Amino acid sequence: MNALTVQPETPLLDTIGSVEDLRRLPKARLRQLADELRTEMISAVSMTGGHFGAGLGVVELTVALHYVFDTPHDRLIWDVGHQAYPHKILTGRRDRIRTIRQGGGLSPFTKRSESAFDPFGAGHSSTSISAALGMAVANKLAGSKRQSIAVIGDGAISAGMAYEAMNNAEQADNRLIVILNDNDMSIAPAVGAMSAYLARILSSRSFLTLRDFSKKFLKILPKPLADRARLAEESARGMVTGSTLFDELGLYYVGPVDGHNLDHLLPILENVRDAPHGPILIHVVTEKGHGHPFADPNAEKYHAVPKFNVVTGEKQKSAPKAPTYTNVFADTLIDLAADDDKIVAITAAMPSGTGLNRFEKAYPDRTFDVGIAEQHAVTFAAGLACEGYKPFATIYSTFLQRAYDQVVHDVAVQKLPVRFAIDRAGLVGADGPTHAGSFDITYLASLPNFIVMAAADEAELRHMVATAASIDDRPSAVRYPRGEGTGVDLPEKGVPLEIGKGRIVRHGSKIAILSLGARLDEALKAADALEARGLSTTVADARFAKPLDSRLVQDLAAGHELLLTVEEGSIGGFGAHVMDYMADEGLLDGGLKVRALKLPDRFQDHDNAGAMYADAGLDAAGIVRAVLKALGHNDLSDMTVDRPASA
Ligand SMILES: Cc1ncc(C[n+]2csc(CCOP(=O)(O)OP(=O)(O)O)c2C)c(N)n1
Ligand SMILES: CC(=O)[C@@H](O)[C@H](O)COP(=O)(O)O
Ligand SMILES: [Mg+2]
């Protein structure tokens, strides 16, 4: 390779137009490049906000991986993808890095359609080893030597999927390399026996240097000799710590390696790349938030950040106008738990995101962070319910998708009273389609035995949490959106609602809007706009997607010309249940017009949530448009409806 000629005063990063430029640099210059890359990432995130600590922690690893491997020919897969900002900067997306997470801008995670350097899209965790293994096996079948590298965190490796993949990894031979990026943090501090096991490995071994590594690594030996030597080496290692779990699973363990030390990282990666046998797992130790200029870089609060002042570190946060749904949920559960010692709460690695960090402060013995293990979380909750406890499985809508069989088979079929507190229901904005809570109404309300509620505001949420606590004979779910509530007065205490009963919020005579969940405000705004056009409008809050308030549906159908359902969910959800009921009852056979407003049948790109709802036609203007269209109006051009500042 020819060394790139660079003027001393030119920032090195400015000379890197492609990974080939990077690979032409002498190794001695990579330290400088990494430092500049870190500075660039800090500058970019200060302007956009976004995932922060994870990316800062893998700057050296990112440089080293692109330097050593022939990306994008070799497949580099970042688990979750929230740490891929330095990767994006180095792979032709530097000019757009300050658009990340904004409408029309770069995706928050890796995305196949965004770059050839993102061979697998992500957002949800613990998929990288399976995907890399699939690619490795495909290349083996095709007779290609192409390698697949999965970079997975110590948090993500708590999920069952990672073990399912490692259990099959042997068939990939040296086409699969797993980098375990161990920073001893998930979003919150890492939990569980696996995390403790990794800590034990670290405390019983010193960082691997190239000298140790060369002594240990048997890349030049023919396989039988290598196998013998490997056995000998493993038993020598066993005198200290035993062979690792990874070795037992068939991945040759290399490590621990200091992930910020390029002098160690580069030669070890080169040797692993050229090893004749595999698969290999390299245990790389990094610090989350490494090189962050401000205090407490490793803390959970730096996992994701709002925009901040790059000089002072001061975060740009507007003063909250109302409590978040998350906090109202948590505070309500804390109140309820004071009078009911059977209430317990479960999170799958999202204690602060779900508010269960608050619950844990009050009830440490009744709070369970099971790690990134949604499937286990649900069946664990089922077990607790079997013994008379009242588990609140508190899981984001999007992450509960992973545990659907557990919801069906372990909870619904057995009619167990697990309470699902489903945060981030509906569109979540900047995290985009992988994180949108679009499907839970559809996948839960289709299950026999389930009660499914959706909160229209934070006061309703308080009542619904109390309702869930009171439902002892079957599963229930309450869904609520990300972010601040509407600012309504909060009742002192939640009072259980009558199951399957909605409420009329505003009376009219021509149009009926039947809303489920937090679009109620938009429905009311739409009603005002329709009223101004002489269209008297009723607005009802269904509260329950299941059981449906059939009396309410009948009344609305009988007294109006048009019935429109509105929900923050996909096709097959609340609207479908209403239609189904109406069809069965013959309510669609007369002159009544019926329409269902729901999320579009496509994955919406990330943007702010208000813009995404507008795009879906689920804002007030969209509701007005739908009504007028149903009534046969042709000119739908000016549907402007006053928007709240937060939209
Ligand atoms: C299935 C799933 N559950 C939860 C999350 C939320 N989540 C995103 S990153 C993260 C922590 C990941 O920790 P780790 O893999 O150690 O990466 P680090 O941030 O420490 O680099 C979690 C829980 C997710 N993305 N996917
Ligand atoms: C990467 C990931 O899955 C989480 O970090 C997620 O972005 C958190 O979302 P909230 O900000 O809604 O908690
Ligand atoms: Mg981690």
From TrEMBL:
SUPFAM superfamilies tied to this protein: Thiamin diphosphate-binding fold (THDP-binding), TK C-terminal domain-like
A Gene Ontology molecular function term for this protein is: 1-deoxy-D-xylulose-5-phosphate synthase activity
The UniProt keyword set, sorted, is: Isoprene biosynthesis, Magnesium, Metal-binding, Thiamine biosynthesis, Thiamine pyrophosphate, Transferase
Cofactor(s) required for function per UniProt: thiamine diphosphate; Mg(2+)
Q: Which InterPro entries match?
A: Dxylulose-5-P_synthase, THDP-binding, Transketo_C/PFOR_II, Transketolase-like_Pyr-bd, Transketolase_BS, Transketolase_C, Transketolase_CS
Where along the chain is thiamine diphosphate bound? 82, 123-125, 155-156, 183, 292, 374
What is the UniProt remark on how the cofactor binds and its stoichiometry?
Answer: Binds 1 thiamine pyrophosphate per subunit. Binds 1 Mg(2+) ion per subunit.
Q: Does the keyword Transferase apply?
A: yes
Keyword set includes Transferase: yes
Q: Which residues form a coiled coil?
A: none
What's the catalysed reaction? Answer: D-glyceraldehyde 3-phosphate + pyruvate + H(+) = 1-deoxy-D-xylulose 5-phosphate + CO2
NCBIfam families, per database record: dxs, PRK05444.2-2
Which protein, by its recorded name, is this?
Answer: 1-deoxy-D-xylulose-5-phosphate synthase
Q: Which gene encodes it?
A: dxs
